[in-house]
Amino acid sequence: MTEPLPGDFGLTKIRGLAGAFVNFGQWFVGDFAPVQHALVYVGNGMVVQAMPSGAELIRLEDASPVVKWSTGLIELKPWQRLKIADETNGLVGTPYSFLDYVSIALERLGVRPRWVLERVAGTGHLICSQLVALAYERAGIELFPGTFPGDITPGDLYKLLKDLESDV
Predict the structure, then answer these.
(1) For strand 37-43 and strand 56-59, is the pairing parallel, antiparallel, or unpaired?
(2) Within-domain flag for 2
(3) Are 73 and 161 in contact (CB under 8 A)?
(4) Can you give the CATH number for the domain in which 63 is found?
């Protein structure tokens, strides 16, 4: 496995009932991927991940094993890596919301009312993939130009990395 650098994001599997729930949701909205969770490496053996208890800073070795890293696939300058890590660290403590999953499903099904989008955008709550997309966006790097960071799923991040691999 390639060692991550600060600012790289990783994708993991979630075991148990939570993983099965996320897997079903991804399949239901046509976004099935072999991963269900995302985190950002911020350096010094630490990662930030969104969890139901809020975004947390933990040791990489305590996180779920990473299936795929963005390392080497997204070209980042050293200053961009530091900015991503800084923005990600600034999101520690951000609350989590299961409503975001409902919003993503409604968006993918083409039936999301505007008030749901506004509610999700206004709460400041984040699920894991949203945390990754928002940290990158705040650092000036849009992983999905023109897409609301609140609509990004772990499957979207996985497909991005697969597409970048095929371009190499």
Answers:
(1) unpaired
(2) no
(3) yes
(4) 3.90.1720
- As for how many domains the chain has, the answer is 1
Determine the Cα–Cα distance for residues 18 and 130; give it in Å rounded to an integer: 18
> How far is residue 157's CA from residue 21's CA, in Å, rounded to a whole number?
18
Q: What is the mean pLDDT of each run of 10 residues along the chain (168 residues)?
A: 88 81 73 89 97 96 95 96 98 91 87 90 92 96 93 93 88
In a domain, 1, yes or no: no
Q: Is 61 helix (H, G, I), strand (E, B) or coil?
A: helix
Helix (H) or strand (E) holding 41: strand 37-43
Question: CB-hemisphere CA count at 13 Å for 72?
Answer: 10
- Domain range for 159: 9-167
Q: What is the pTM of this model?
A: 0.91
